[in-house]
Design the sequence.
């Protein structure tokens, strides 16, 4: 089935009523038909029919065999790190969501896991940093917020040659544009809060693996059952509804993002534009070889930190807020918001600085978005 059809129809179960959507099963527990017999549903933490429909839909969209719907994107990242043991080594990219860095540096490093940050664009470097203790390579592509592109196929090969796993955070593109499992990754995760939800009204995470019967799937199942990070039935239903429009949303957002990225470059207040859809992005060809679209995320730098801060105060239509992927356009100031936890040495290495702004392009009319940015940048530059 093609993506658009899979998104619309998903894995909804049609019952005798003919309802077109899976009901919200607001039940914490389920009656047993008899001793040692089960309907397949026993207790809500372990499985709920609405969540199961969502999990099957996510697995279908990601090209995987088993998916879990979780209470946040961080719950998904947490499950990936929880696969590691004391003494394990993990390679992480230097340009990475700040919350993932915080979880690694402040929580999991306490348990004796060794996290090493490298420039994941450098395949030779990644190969040279593999050790016999390396359990996991974790990537984001495009990365947040500098839009670095990582070669998924090459890193999967390196990980597998060393008996390690490759996990890809696919939040910036969603499965509509990129399917890391089909390129060799072992685990794909999403902050479902972003494009999968698309309406800025649910916090959700998803985690998907290729084979439902693998040891990896069994270990994640054990973690989910034991730790209880599952998504609620109501939120699962909202996510099922959101997924029906995933393709039309992200394709429209991508179209507007390309227009805005090209236009931003012509503005006197803007010094640099980072968008994987610009044909002179340094890794444009690599991105094209592993994705079917470029998404709606743009980062750009203005002339001074004061201009960056003043822009936020002058926005009228675009919201100054954290997050991304929704119908409402959002402007984020990564250095004080999403990446406030990032160690200073990494900040200098990646180029993320106090002149950088990150735009999540929503579904408003593109001309209105340009007009809002133009007036805010002009006023900001006059001030500082
Ligand atoms: N991964 C990326 C790339 C993100 O941008 C975020 C949140 O911004 C997360 C993971 C965490 O997701 P959540 O906020 O749903 O916990």
Sequence:
């Amino acid at each position: 089935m093609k993506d658009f059809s899979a998104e619309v129809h998903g894995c909804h179960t049609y019952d005798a009523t003919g309802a077109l959507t899976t009901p919200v099963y607001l039940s914490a527990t389920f009656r047993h038909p008899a001793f040692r017999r089960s309907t397949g549903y026993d207790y809500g933490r372990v499985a709920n029919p609405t969540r199961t429909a969502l999990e099957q839909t996510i697995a279908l969209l990601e090209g995987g065999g088993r998916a879990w719907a979780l209470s946040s994107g961080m719950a998904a990242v947490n499950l990936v790190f929880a696969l590691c043991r004391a003494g394990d080594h993990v390679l992480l990219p230097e340009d990475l969501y700040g919350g993932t860095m915080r979880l690694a540096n402040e929580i999991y490093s306490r348990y004796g896991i060794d996290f090493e940050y490298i420039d994941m664009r450098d395949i030779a470097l990644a190969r040279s940093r593999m050790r016999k203790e390396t359990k996991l390579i974790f990537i984001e592509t495009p990365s947040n917020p500098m839009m670095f592109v990582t070669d998924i196929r090459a890193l999967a090969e390196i990980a597998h040659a060393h008996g390690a796993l490759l996990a890809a955070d696919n939040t910036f593109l969603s499965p509509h544009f990129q399917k890391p499992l089909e390129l060799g990754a072992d685990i794909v995760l999403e902050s479902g809060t972003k494009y999968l939800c698309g309406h800025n009204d649910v916090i959700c995470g998803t985690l998907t693996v290729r084979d439902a019967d693998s040891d990896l799937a069994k270990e994640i199942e054990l973690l989910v059952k034991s730790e209880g990070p599952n998504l609620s039935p109501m939120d699962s239903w909202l996510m099922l509804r959101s997924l029906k429009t995933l393709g039309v949303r992200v394709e429209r957002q991508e179209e507007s993002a390309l227009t805005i990225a090209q236009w931003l470059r012509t503005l006197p207040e803007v010094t640099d534009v980072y968008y994987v859809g610009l044909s002179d992005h340094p890794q444009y060809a690599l991105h094209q070889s592993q994705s079917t679209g470029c998404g709606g995320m743009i980062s750009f730098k203005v002339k001074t930190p004061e201009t960056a801060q003043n822009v936020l105060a002058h926005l009228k239509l675009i919201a100054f807020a954290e997050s991304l992927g929704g119908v409402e356009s959002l402007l984020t100031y990564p250095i004080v918001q999403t990446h406030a936890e990032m160690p200073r040495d990494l900040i200098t290495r990646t180029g993320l600085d106090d002149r950088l702004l990150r735009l999540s392009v929503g579904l408003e009319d593109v001309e209105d978005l340009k007009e809002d940015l133009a007036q805010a940048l002009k006023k900001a530059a006059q001030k500082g």
The chain has a mean pLDDT of 96. The CA atoms of residues 267 and 374 lie 8 Å apart. The first strand starts at residue 66 and ends at 70.
